[in-house]
Structure formats: C-alpha cells, structure tokens
Amino acid sequence: MAGSLAMRAVQSSAASQEDFYKHGMRSLSPDSPVSHVLEGLCHFREQPLTSPSQFVRPTSLLFQQAGRERRWDAVQAHESVAAMLHNSQLDAFIVVRQFRPAIYAVRWRAAKAAGLPEPPPAAGLSYELCAGILDKPGKSAEQVCCEEILEEVGYRVSPQQLACCAGSVISSAGVTGAPQAVFFAQVDESMRARAGGGTMAASERVEALSLPVAAVDAFIADASLAKTPGLCFGLLWGRQWLQQQQQQQQQQSSQRT
Amino acid sequence: MAGSLAMRAVQSSAASQEDFYKHGMRSLSPDSPVSHVLEGLCHFREQPLTSPSQFVRPTSLLFQQAGRERRWDAVQAHESVAAMLHNSQLDAFIVVRQFRPAIYAVRWRAAKAAGLPEPPPAAGLSYELCAGILDKPGKSAEQVCCEEILEEVGYRVSPQQLACCAGSVISSAGVTGAPQAVFFAQVDESMRARAGGGTMAASERVEALSLPVAAVDAFIADASLAKTPGLCFGLLWGRQWLQQQQQQQQQQSSQRT
C-alpha cells in the first residue's frame, strides 16, 4: 500500500499542506478563502451505504456479448456542465477549489492501512473546473453553465459568450458513464456580479482561484495537487485558444502595416 | 429529457453510427477491429445492484464541517494508470476504443424516457487513453502502465521511457476520488510485440486506434464521440510535447549552421 498513488499524495500533502497558494494562485472569493472551505472539518469516518442515496444509485447492467451473459456494475449519476474561464485583466484562468470527501477518503484509507496518522483535512482539497449538475428540466446546458459560473466564481456570462471545448466528455466511463459538456469563456472584472464561493442554500464551500496562464504547466505537473483531468484539459485548451487569438491579432496588425 | 446531453448523443450517434473511422483513425489491432468489439451485443437491461460488487462498493462518508454533521455518499474504486502514446512513424496518437456498458446505459435510459427505439450498441463506444487499474501489490504505477500498454495496444515500453503528464488526476472527484497517474511515451513499430486488443483472460474487447496528430482538434470537438477528459488532456499534452521537441531541434540545427 505504501507505493500507492494515494500514499504518495498523503506524504506530499503532509509536506506541503501549509502552502495553499502555490503557482501564483490567488483567491477571488473573499468570503470563501481556503480557511472557510476547511473550517471545522473533523471526525471523519466511513460506513457501508445502507439507505438509498440521491447521488449514488448502484445499478447492475446486464447484456449479452458474443453469446455470453455479462454483468457490469455501475452507478447512475447526473449529467453535468463545466466551464474554463480566462480572466483577461489578470491573464489567469479561473479554477475552483473545494473539499471533496471521496478524495479525502482515499487518502484517509491509505494512511490507515499504512498505520500512519489521519491526514489533515487539506488532503481532501480538489482543484476543478467550475461545474454543476444538469438537474433543472427545461434549461439548456449553456444556461445551467452560466448559472454555475455566477454561483461559484461570481461572473455574469451569457450563453452566447460560451465556446464549446468538448460536447460530451465522460469523466467516469467505467462507473457512471455520465456526460459532461465543457465550455470556455473569457471574462473580466466588469462582469463580476457577486463574490462567488457557492450558494449557502446548498451549503457549498467553494474557493474561486486565479491561476496565471504562465503557471499552467507547473500546476499540472504538481503531483501534490488533486485535480480533475477535465481541469487539465481545460487549461491546455484555454491556453491554445489564447495563442490562436494572439496569432490572429498579429497577422491582422501586420496586414495593416 | 429531449434536451439532455445523452439525448443529443443518441441522435448524433444514430446519424453517424456507420462511420467508425472518422478523423483519419485507423485500427492497429487487426484481431480486434470495431466489429469484434461490438460482436453480439444485445439484450441490454438493468436492475438495482443487490449483491456485493467487486467494482462498485457504495460507501457513506461521515464527517463534521463547521459544527454540522455531514454525509457524502461515494463509491470505492481502484487507483489506476493511463498512457498517452505517440507513434512517431505514423505521426499519430494511440487511442483505445471499447464498449462501455455505463455509457450505453445513459443513452439507453434517455432513449427509453423519450419513447425512442433502443440505440444501436455503437452508442456505447468510448474513446479513452490506454489504461488499467492498480491492483497488483508490489508493482509500481510505471510497471503496471507498461503492462497495460503491451496488453491493450501491443507496444513494449519500459518504465524508463515514460514521461509523467500528471501525477494524480482524479477522474471522478465527487463519486470515487480515486487517483490516476497519466504517462506519455513515444513508440514506433519496432517496439510492437503483439497485436494488442486486450487480454482474453479478462474477456476484454478493445480496439487500438491511431489518430493523426493533425486531427486532434476535430476529434476533440466532435460531440458525437464519447471520450474521457483524460484522453482530451493527453492529446493536447502530447501535441504540446511534440511542438516543444520540434522547436528544440530547430534551435539546435540553427546553432549548428
């Protein structure tokens, strides 16, 4: 177990747990800094799921393949949307940081199995795209995405301002199969409508962060930070979009002169 | 439901179900073409998970946050590794295609809810990085990764040939929290040891595909193809690596002259 990815992460997060703003990251949600996200996290424990769950609905998929009966166990999950935002004034991407119980649990179990002390709550911090589930009938993916952007990071973006990075990525092809649409938008502080940080109603504690474009490669390569592949994809897609914009502007200005 | 991402995918996959080699993709596993992957898939149905499952172990995570008792339902899943491969002779990336019951189920439910006919089995095809779970104690992530490369796509790669794209991505931060290490390697046909296509023992039916580097953007933008965000990240990371190699070579040759 000591060689597992989770164990490597426990060791590196224990070593770097105090440095919450590596790679030039800055908080953009003054009401929800990392201290708010981690406030009073304690008394972590685990038990088998016995009562029905709104979010984890285990299911058995049965089918025939080449004449054989097969069974594949899976989980029903919601469709979702995600957004990669670039702030043109800061020349930074907008990243969301929150405590993810499932990530903490993986590291907590690994430490337990190795006879090590319980990891600090910061071991459950995750870096992700601003995102949300599609559970509002009658609303388009683009509309839900704009609502999530407003709630989590505080910018007012219209559906028309969204570019599509990928129409249907499947984060968990083996377990849930649920699709996610990934969008991109450019924002600036004139579009700020609220502080961000999630909604009180959902008792969300989310920190909005800016990550300088110049720090993208170092951020992705930092194995001590738990991040989604969707975020890694969004960061590279966004940087490529910026480079293409720059090239177009250079061509236009060289044609003028 | 008709506006859902799954329903969009059902409609677009019904329209394009016969075109299995879009974007210049070519099969690299002659024993396991798409017809083998889809062979005899039928009689799909679903029932609640009642007996214990090796792959889907539902769990309740309990903790306190800011003085409140909280519960988060999750699923225990294996750690895993994934590899993005570039074939220098073909100037193409190596992509894996397989039938994913969980993806098919999402589209099958959407069609059912809309009163539409059952989608074709091809609606469950997924495009992914070559990958595998870390379930062999005592083996490093790099060793397991090389074994998966050999099994799924047939190239003999040594752990020393792997570059790290990202040390700890979490595909499903909400549901499983399980980390995955993503590696990159460059291969050519002199490293081919077998046909690829998965192992008979695991009754895997996997197709290895080459995807031309020049087609990466069109592939990612194609919403009719179900792909993981990890694959989208790997493709952009790999292309960036190739561009950096090219620039270094140009600099070296210009210094020489």
TrEMBL record, chains A, B:
Required cofactor(s): Mg(2+)
GO biological process: nucleoside phosphate metabolic process; ribose phosphate metabolic process
UniProt keyword terms in alphabetical order: Hydrolase
Gene Ontology molecular function terms on file: hydrolase activity, acting on acid anhydrides, in phosphorus-containing anhydrides; metal ion binding
InterPro entries registered for this protein in UniProt: NDP_pyrophosphatase (IPR004385), NUDIX_hydrolase-like_dom_sf (IPR015797)
Name of the protein in question: Nudix hydrolase domain-containing protein
